Each structure stands twice: as structure tokens, then as C-alpha cells.
Amino acid sequence: MKVIQSFETERLMLKAVDKEDGSFILELFNTPQWIANIGDRNVRNIEQAETYIEEKMRPQIERLGFGNYIMIRKLDGRKIGTCGLYDREGLDGIDIGYALLPQFEKQNYAFEGASKMLDLAKHYFNLTEIVAITTPENIPSQKILEKLGLKFVKTIKLPSDDKELNFYKLSLR
């Protein structure tokens, strides 16, 4: 197992997700924004959230040393969202992603967390490129990706889905 780190930004602590984050993951996964932009994960109770964390999130962190991080606001210790680097099935490359509870959107937290992930990808995890996907309707996410330096490449479909997604890429060399 790799050493799992926590990281920080000016306003955020970024902590690797673990089973004790089940209630937060349950809340986040069931927001209308998550379901519309990321997809329904069919997580409807704490037990399902904890199982999802243990079976879908933690294995990547333990295998690669990076994955999904809970964004915790330093100001008050509130869990406000997630950001991370994902080895996503059907994508060629490591995907950068982020999601916030609705009340914390439009406060630059997604950009702040994703900027840290991008810096870590290059300087800590030694990745050579980052990719990202977003629904064509998710203009706010597209603006964040572009602000991070990612460029739109094409539309794609993941193997397990028939929905078209915008595909972005950034070389870290």
C-alpha cells in the first residue's frame, strides 16, 4: 500500500476519502448537480456510500497513491466537495475532476482544489498529461477546465454510457 497524503491550499484541506466520509458522499452523490453532470451512482444510504468508498474509491488510492479527495474548508472544517485524479475506465489518461455541494459553488473552491490536483499531478505524482470529461451542458465545469489550461479535443462516449461527453487534455511536460 502506498503512503496516502493529505494536502492543503489557501482555503482547503484535501483529505483522501475514507469510509468515515460515507454520510458526506451520500449527500454529494444525491445532489441534482451530481446526478445531472456526473451520473446517478445509485447510492441511497450510508451503508451503500461506505461500500462505494471501500470498493470503488479506496482501491485506486491504495494502488496508485492518488484518487478522490474530500475538500474541507479550513474556515470551519466543513466538507464542501471532492476533487481528484481518477484512473477512469474508458479514458486514456488520468482524469481530473471536482464536485461541490450546491451551496459552495461559484466561490472558486473547485478551481482551487483542481489547481492543487494539477500541481500534484505534475510535481508529486509525476504524471505527464491530464485529461478531463464533462457533459456538453456543464458550462461552469468547462470554464474551470479551460482556466486550468486544458484544451477541448473532441466529443467521446465512455464504454458504459451512450451519452456524449466533451474530452479535454493538457500536457504536463
Radius of gyration: 15 Å
| CATH architecture identity | 3-Layer(aba) Sandwich
Q: Spans of 5+ residues with little confidence (pLDDT < 50)?
A: none
Question: What is the number of helices?
Answer: 5
Give a count of the beta strands, DSSP E runs of length 2 or more.
8
Give the biggest sheet. Answer: 8 strands, mixed
Taken from the alpha-carbon principal axes, the silhouette is: globular
Number of domains: 1
N-to-C span: 28 Å
Strand content: 25-35%
Helical fraction: 25-40%
CATH superfamily: Gcn5-related N-acetyltransferase (GNAT)
**What is the level 1 CATH name?**
Alpha Beta
Q: What sequence of helices (H) and strands (E) makes up the elements?
A: EEHHHEEEHEHEE
CATH fold-level assignment: Aminopeptidase
Give an overview of the whole structure.
The protein has a single domain (7-171), classed as Gcn5-related N-acetyltransferase (GNAT) (Aminopeptidase, 3-Layer(aba) Sandwich). Helix 1 (22-29) packs across helix 3. 34% of the residues lie in helices and 27% in strands. The radius of gyration is 15 Å and the shape is globular. The two termini are 28 Å apart. The protein is of the alpha+beta class. It has helices at residues 22-29, 32-37, 46-64, 109-123, 139-148, and strands at residues 7-8, 12-16, 68-73, 79-86, 94-100, 129-134, 151-156, 165-171. The mean pLDDT is 95.
